[in-house]
Design goal:
With 332 residues, the chain is an alpha/beta fold. The chain has two domains: 249 residues, Rossmann fold; 64 residues, no CATH class. The chain has an eight-stranded mixed sheet with strand order 6-7-8-3-9-10-12-11, with helices on both faces. α4 packs parallel to α7. The chain is globular. It starts with a strand and ends with a helix.
């Protein structure tokens, strides 16, 4: 994949509990292509945010946490870099929009100071030059009267405006890859649509790659080029967006799609997925979705399935014994 800008290989992140070490993310591998939007989707607790934080090096060295695997960017494995070297990459070539803008922004510092900070640290700008650039960035994300608002504090901004400030901060140094962790979760539908449209517009204009974390498949359909469906710390399906919505292969993906409300269906037709995502200390040894799956067989409780390319019209990976066998039989 010559156009790959980020390659995550066999990423595993484990946390220490009283009874030992348990993986919250297990053997996750994916590529992020140039100027692509890749969405990580799944229920809460499936490991989406942990995957992004691990790839950014934000969990490495934390007490009670172990990160293994490889994260290749610009010819270097980020997992081998020390914290000092990582600081020069994060916020510059790699950036992240965190999940809740009110807690991610410092409530006691003016907005202008916070937007200017990465420019001072990574670009060596003086305070005056950085504030001029901060005005341009706030204009770019369509915050009205940007110069006046530099001196205001986060509590003086609405939720949608705070999210735009977070986007401005992340884009300050023109990153190659932007991780966005549920950037529209706390917003109403109208503002959510505006923020998504803005991110799409900026991605095309700035030519960066976007890794978007969400549990909202409506958002995925709007913005994604490819989708990685995560369940219990593993990628269970990885496919182009159109292909995934047209022909989902994994039972978990099918369940997520059946649970989406649609204007052309009665709400009584919505089907919930029985059960819930297990805790990291209660993960099934083989297929992690097996306890909730209507298709499970004996092999699902004995052997862990691999992520296999089912070779549909486009590359399409699934992690399911039953569906892999069915697709292999139909192809023969």
């Amino acid at each position: 994949m010559t156009d790959s800008v980020l390659s995550v290989r066999n990423l595993t992140t484990s946390f220490k509990l009283r009874s030992g070490w348990f993986p919250a993310v297990r053997d996750v591998s994916f590529e992020v292509m140039k100027n692509e939007t890749l969405c990580l989707v799944g229920e809460s607790g499936c490991g989406k945010s942990i995957t992004a934080l691990s790839a950014m090096g934000l969990l490495a060295g934390q007490q009670g946490c172990r990160v293994s695997g490889e994260v290749w960017f610009d010819g270097r494995d980020l997992t081998t870099l020390g914290e000092g070297a990582l600081r020069h990459v994060r916020g510059d070539r790699l950036a992240m929009i965190f999940q809740e803008p009110m807690t991610s922004l410092n409530p006691v510092l003016p907005i202008g100071y916070q937007v200017a900070e990465p420019l001072i640290y990574h670009r060596g700008m003086g305070r005056h030059e950085a504030e001029k650039e901060a005005v341009r960035l706030l204009d770019l994300v369509k915050i009205p009267d940007a110069r006046r608002r530099l001196a205001q504090y986060p509590h003086q901004f609405s939720g949608g405006m705070r999210q735009r400030v977070m986007i401005a901060m992340a884009l300050a140094c023109d990153p190659d890859i932007l991780f966005a962790d549920e950037p529209t979760t706390a917003l109403d539908v109208t503002i959510q649509s505006q923020v998504l449209a803005l991110m799409n517009e900026l991605r095309d204009e700035k030519a960066f790659s976007l890794v978007l974390i969400t549990h909202d498949l409506g958002v995925v359909a709007t913005i994604a080029d490819r989708v990685a469906v995560m369940y219990a710390g593993e990628i269970v399906e990885l496919a182009p967006t159109d292909e995934l919505f047209r022909a989902p292969r994994h039972p978990y993906t099918e369940g997520l799609l059946r649970a989406i409300p649609r204007a052309d269906r009665d709400t009584e037709t919505l089907q919930a997925i029985d059960g819930q995502v297990p805790g990291i200390d209660k993960m099934p040894a083989a297929c992690r979705f097996a306890p909730r799956c209507a298709l499970r067989e004996d092999i699902c409780e004995r052997e862990r399935p691999e992520l296999v390319d089912c070779r549909a019209e486009q590359p399409h990976g699934i992690r399911c014994h039953v569906r892999t066998r069915e697709l292999a039989g139909s192809a023969s």
